TrEMBL record, chains A, B:
Bias-annotated ranges (Basic and acidic residues): 143-153
HTH asnC-type domain mapped to chain residues: 5-66
Ranges for region Disordered: 142-163
Source organism of the structure: Actinoallomurus bryophytorum
SMART domains in the record: HTH_ASNC
InterPro entries, alphabetized: ArsR-like_HTH, AsnC-type_HTH_dom, Dimeric_a/b-barrel, Tscrpt_reg_AsnC-like, Tscrpt_reg_AsnC/Lrp_C, WH-like_DNA-bd_sf, WH_DNA-bd_sf
PROSITE patterns named among the record's database cross-references: HTH_ASNC_2
Cellular-component GO terms for this entry: cytosol
Family matches, as CDD domains: HTH_ARSR
Name of the featured protein: Lrp/AsnC family leucine-responsive transcriptional regulator
Length: 163, 163
DNA sequence: GTTGAAACACTGTTCGT
DNA sequence: ACGAACAGTGTTTCAAC
């Protein structure tokens, strides 16, 4: 059941990520399969959890939330954000990642205005040392999950440390 | 045409972000409107660019790309990543943001394995000073674009600096 | 995995309020 | 301008090969 994806699966994933409303008919034509066959593959991708759902893509800026920032948080002892708050308290926080390295987490936030960001950072700052980075512009985003190139990419060896 | 979104629009956006395959019939029922009325609103949201499309959500880990990292890049003069490379050369890079502050850009990357990441960072490192943060786990992600709370959030004043 | 058929559901339009 | 019904079309899903 955890068998890897073949190239037709990747083709299906690419098409569905580009247009999640494709019918099995059209999708089947694009991947050169019949509708029932493609329906069965999609069903398997959904049940195995590779496809988690379908959603509309919304332009946050056009919707009135033009500001994005990344916030690195180094949690203070006993006031870790993850253990002391909920997602509902911080609707501006769109992502929370635990990190290796000197900050324990990386937050992504989205706000309507600079005062809004200022207030948010003040509320976040109570939970530890903060390092915020305002996004001036987003050059590239929303790339589809693609099949990784299976070519082995050799890393330059450090001759002085190899034996 | 750039008129702001009312609460029904936000309700529609919430439903469509949760399930992009909702028919106008079901959607209309959920927002207490008729199908033609809701179809017209969705059409406007699409044409005004608030809704940019519909797509399948794919679990990158389940698809064989379990590693994510953030990379802050401080471009070296004359070898800025954005001006000297293309998206095709770096399929692992899923986002590129220009930043304020000491690093000129924040990259988000997604790879299949640690050697894969190592090779990628070596290739990226040629374009400037790098600061990478490996994501250990993602606690929260994919939050829908929501209506911002319009309550003004007053920021604590700094009494010593106000007049 | 493919083809064909039948039932179903959806969309877009038209009309009435 | 909104809501309701109708007709046409496209889709899904089953069967058999």
């Amino acid at each position: 059941m955890d068998r890897s994806l073949d190239s037709i699966d990747w083709h299906i994933l690419a098409e569905l990520q580009r247009d999640g409303r494709l019918s099995y008919n059209r999708l089947a034509r694009r991947v050169n399969l019949s509708a029932p066959a493609v329906a069965e593959r999609v069903r398997r991708l959904e049940e195995s959890g590779v496809i988690t759902g379908y959603g509309a893509r919304v332009d946050a800026t056009k919707a009135g939330l033009p500001l994005t920032a990344f916030v690195q948080l180094r949690c203070a002892l006993g006031s870790c954000l993850l253990k002391n708050t909920t997602a509902e308290e911080f609707p501006e926080v769109t992502e929370v990642h635990k990190l290796s390295g000197d900050s324990c987490s990386m937050l992504r936030v989205r706000v309507a205005s600079m005062p809004h960001l200022e207030g948010l950072l003040e509320r976040l700052g109570r939970h530890g040392e903060m390092n915020s980075h305002i996004v001036l512009s987003t050059q590239y985003e929303g790339r589809a999950v693609e099949r990784p190139a299976d070519e082995t990419r050799p890393v330059t060896g450090s001759s002085g440390w190899s034996r």
